[in-house]
Amino acid sequence: AAVMSAPPPPPGAHPPFFACYLVVSLDPRRAGKSYVGFTANPPRRLAQHNGALANGAKYTSSLRPCDMIFIVSGFTSKVQALQFEWAWQHPVTARATRKSALERGVTNASTSPAKKTQLMCLMLGLAPWKHMTLRVDVLSMHARGMYDKYASGVVPAHVDVRQSTMRDVKALVDDALGDDAEAHDYDEDALNVAGDGECTPSCGLSASGQSGMGVCASCGRELAAGRAAVGCGACGARAHAACMARHFFTNAGERAKTWSSKLIPEDGPCPSCSVAMSWGQAVAAARARRQRRGAENVAPLARVDEQCSPGGAHSSGNMSMAKKAKLTPSVSSVEKERARIRAWRDEEWFDAEAAREDEDDEEELVLSVV
Known about the structure:
This protein is of the alpha+beta class. The protein folds into 2 domains: 3-193 and 345-368, no CATH class; 206-296, Zinc/RING finger domain, C3HC4 (zinc finger) (Herpes Virus-1, 2-Layer Sandwich). The chain is 37% helix and 13% strand. The protein has 13 helices and 11 strands. The strands form 3 sheets. Strands 1-6-5-4-2-3 form a 6-stranded mixed β-sheet, sandwiched between helices. A 3-stranded antiparallel β-sheet has the order 7-8-9. InterPro entries: GIY-YIG_endonuc, GIY-YIG_endonuc_sf, Slx1, SLX1_C, SLX1_endonuclease, Znf_RING/FYVE/PHD.
């Protein structure tokens, strides 16, 4: 995947922002030390790690000053991002990464930026992440050099890799959070319910927004509201996810037996124009279309916001306080989130027995849920 400069994102064109990141120490005495984490706001999280804001991770206090060199985003739910973080932190414990990590000498104790970069590139090419439409922001030229070294022939072509600045990332975050930016200040420090999706075979599939969106390029039936859809970036055709998967498997024939999943195909031709594409590219095409439609809807949404602003037709002095109270996590929502995070340990890629043998590392589990 080629590294590109990051253009300014169109307003309203991004889904909720969940990301994993790699922080490295700039202190020569801590050379070779790094930290992997999860966040919904990378600029604020970096400030926390450097002590400029409260609630930074305890471990990174010894790495100060530190810098964020990679941000992986594009996850459609908080749980998907937490799964990626866990495997990035514990590559030998996670079943999906164990074999590849051990073959390359990467262990749970590996903290060098080079090893973590190599592992990140490996993960982007492994199931289930290779089926997702992920984005990688590279935040330094040194990081770009490491990425170029390990990404060749490993990272799928549909992964959106960009040479960015923290200002570019802040624009993504601001656009995703909108007026609710304050409500996300507790993202790493409290277990707010930010999404209920699991890492399923759909892996970030787009849902048709409404009826009348066209017909499936594979079966010819209408693309009904609420049904998962994928598309073709070349001709713009769209299809039901199940129909496109069936089409890919049929065209692959015997080759499909070598694929890592029996539910998610690796690649195949568009049923309309026959252009070859990966499953991730099919998902990305549908997401890009949804984002364009979201940007087109910004104007009417802005009119609604104007009516609800101070002095508008529906303004209320207590609205912001009520909104914050609604978004602040309750005890029950915290317990619900803990239960959800524990639940994904039972998935096939997570080896619970190996995790029990690694209790010291498990204490670093996301958001201290155990």
